[in-house]
Every structure is written in C-alpha cells, then in structure tokens.
Amino acid sequence: MSRKKGFSLVELLIVLAVMAALIATITPVALNAIQKSKATQVAQNLKTLASAFENKAYVDGADETASLTKLSSISRDVSGDYILYYTQTAGTFTCVVAFTPTNSVNADKVIEALQTAQKNAPFTSISNWKTLTKDNTGTKNKALAEDDAAVFYPFTFSVY
C-alpha cells in the first residue's frame, strides 16, 4: 500500500499545540522585560533631570536658577510627564522631580529601579514651590496629587 506524501491532520495539530505552548510560556517573560526596560528608562530620566538641574545651579550660580522657566532649558526632548519642583534657602536647594506615568509604565517598577524614588509627595509644601515643566504652562499636573500613579524623586544639594 502506498502512502501519500505530506503530513496528516493530527501531526499538524500536534505541531501547532507545541508552538502555542511555547508562545504562551515566552509571552509573559517578554512583556515583563518590556515593562522593566520602560521603568528603567524613566528612572534614568528622573536622575538625569535631577543631575541637569544641579549642574545648572553649580555652573551658573544659585541665583540664575530663578530665570529658568522650562525643563528644555536644562535638557532636550523632555516629555510632558515630568515636572521639577524646587525651593531654595540660602544656597541649599530642596528639589523633587515628579513623573506621572502613562498606562505603559508601571510606577512600582520605576521605584524598584530607582530605590530613592517614592509614590507619595515627599513634602507637604511642594505645591508652593517653583516649577519647571516641559512647556511652562504654569499648571500643576496630577503629579502633585497624592496619586498612586505618581513617582517622586527627591534630592537636595548646596551651592556655595
């Protein structure tokens, strides 16, 4: 008896089932890696904005920071998700960089990547501080609210 060339329906279904099982196993790992990479990028952006503001104050002097009006003065390509709050007392700056995540960024993973970041506003008087936003609209975004989605990165430094 001669057999036809090709695969039987059962053989094709078994191959498809094995492929589906492999894809189901790999998908959560890939999605977790994507979330973690986005969170790491946000954590790095928080640190970069903090460092850029600190460097600007050191190079130009503490008094020159009052003339800053927007984040693009200290860094390029800043998204509207970031806002920098600061206050100055006798050369000592107390600052907070806030990030309001979009749906694609997990705030907990950002805090995991940047240990000094936190979910709650670290200072109660932050709404009275000077602000730097992307476009200097002067409006406070939802990063000020005690919002579970907000990530705050506080830092202090002194300029002599």
Walk across the major sheet and give the strand order: 3-1-2-4
The oligomeric state is single chain
Average residue-wise pLDDT: 85
Bin the helical content: 25-40%
The amount of beta strand, in percent, is 15-25%
Structural class, from helix and strand content? alpha+beta
Our Rg estimate from Cα atoms comes to 24 Å
Q: In this structure, how is the largest beta sheet organized?
A: 4 strands, antiparallel
Note the run of SSEs as H and E.
Answer: HEEHEE
Estimate the global geometry from the Cα principal axes.
rod-shaped
What count of helical segments does DSSP give?
2
Annotation, overall tally of beta strands: 4
End-to-end Cα distance, whole Å, is 96 Å
Low-confidence stretches: 139-143
